[in-house]
Write the structure tokens for this entry.
Amino acid sequence: AYEIVSRDWSSDVCSSDLLTRGLVLFDEANEYRFVNLIAGMWLSLNSRADSEFAHGREIVAQAQLDRGYDALSKENKSLAPSYFYGSLLLTDDLESHSGYIRSMVTQRQRETIDLRYASIEKENFIGDNRLFVKALLILLDSETELAANPAETGPFDRALDLLDQMKDDRDSAIRHLLMGYCKLKKLERQGKGYDLDRGLFEEAHRHFMLTLDQARDNPRVTASALMDLGILHARVQNHGLAVRFFKRRQAFGFMDAN
């Protein structure tokens, strides 16, 4: 298959359909080096406006994400950022951005993140999704502040403001997941006993349900949404529904036994 694609790269025979098929075949065969090569060819022929773009981007992103999460699960944490970074350069995918940023922060390379993204923006490898990156960094950079003040909600408000401005991936499951998380945390911090902001609860619930709808084929994101839904409903005393969400989450298993 690789010989066919390489031979016909500059001919009319080598259409985006052939490259898309190549992505599928190499992904199924776990031939990641060819996935990356074909992905570069494919992305040069397609723009976000093309009908094939979303499908092809999903194949590329999932192949790289699988490698990144596999590195994390096998304690090869130093390798994980490179897989996530490779995916975000090729696809500008939100889960790739999230995986890269979180894995780099875990390895105490926060300053490197700023340098990398300055270069990415300069080379136009990221578009509207820079708002998601900024929102996520606000939350990660505010962990000490939030831990010191249980009533603080400012970082969540700033993150939500950025996420609300997004246009390109506005319906992304990852965007809805992070927005739901921010509203869940605001609900937890602002509520006192049974005195809760019902509107905030309903907004958080809506975002998590939209996450489930958009992430039907993504077990990682689905598992995260189910966990958050369980926590959300437990907080408002909907214990029966919370248990149902937790049981559905448990079926997906865990990377870390702890």
Summary: The two ends are 43 Å apart (CA to CA). Confidence is low (pLDDT under 50) at residues 9-13. DSSP finds 14 helices and no strands in the chain.
